[in-house]
Amino acid sequence: MADHDERLGQDGVGEPDAFERLWTPHRIVYIKGEGKPATGDEADCPFCRIPQMDDVEGLIVHRGEHAYAVLNLYPYNAGHLLVCPYRHVADYTDLTDEETLEVAELTKTAMRTMREVTSPQGFNLGMNQGNIAGAGIAAHLHQHIVPRWGGDANFLPVIGQTKTMPQLLGDTRDMLAAAWPKE
Which positions are catalytic residues (predicted)? Predict the structure, then answer.
């Protein structure tokens, strides 16, 4: 262990503990925000641009009156959806009652639709409010809906910097859009 620390230019100050360390320096790009929109304004916001695209190009699964469901371009898991209000707002408390209701309804419908077509065993749901809380695009609120299956997480993304996805985004979009309940 001492030879390893010396190779890294670290002097090993401190007492050894029971933890092994898995160093992932490639993650610094994400932490520093490289590739994120340069500003927080609407002109630079992907969630404001996506609704201007056609559904296939924008990976839009469903359009509502106040919000829409879109596949995450960088999914954590297959079927990772985002529900975004059309209005460019950063904070959940800034949503109108109508927007709040539709974000909630679209989230419920997304979960039902995914259960019907992909049979996930669970879901992660969440909104990261602000950069410090992990929001990749903090200027435009978005709800994450991540389907989960037993054994879907492993060390490949950390060790191999690779995430295996069983289906192309376009195919996932088509499947979910076709199964989305018609109004």
Answer: 142
The boundaries of the domain holding residue 123 are 39-179
* Residue in 98, 61, 110, 103 with CA at minimum distance from that of residue 85: 103
Catalytic residue among 62, 80, 140, 142: 142
131 is in an annotated binding site: no
- The mean-pLDDT minimum among 6-15, 78-87, 127-136 falls in 6-15
What is the dihedral angle through the alpha carbons of 149, 137, 73, 68, rounded to the nearest 10 degrees? 80
Instruction: Please indicate, yes or no, if residue 31 is contained in any of the structural domains.
Output: no
128 is in an annotated binding site: no
Is the predicted pLDDT of residue 51 greater than 50, yes or no?
yes
Single out the residue of 72, 64, 68 nearest to residue 48, CA to CA: 68
Rg, Å, the chain Cα set: 19
Check residue 7 and give its pLDDT: 47
Return the CATH number at 47: 3.30.428.10
The answer to whether 3 and 10 are in contact (CB under 8 A) is: no
For the question of residue 26 being annotated catalytic, the response is no
Domain count, the chain: 1
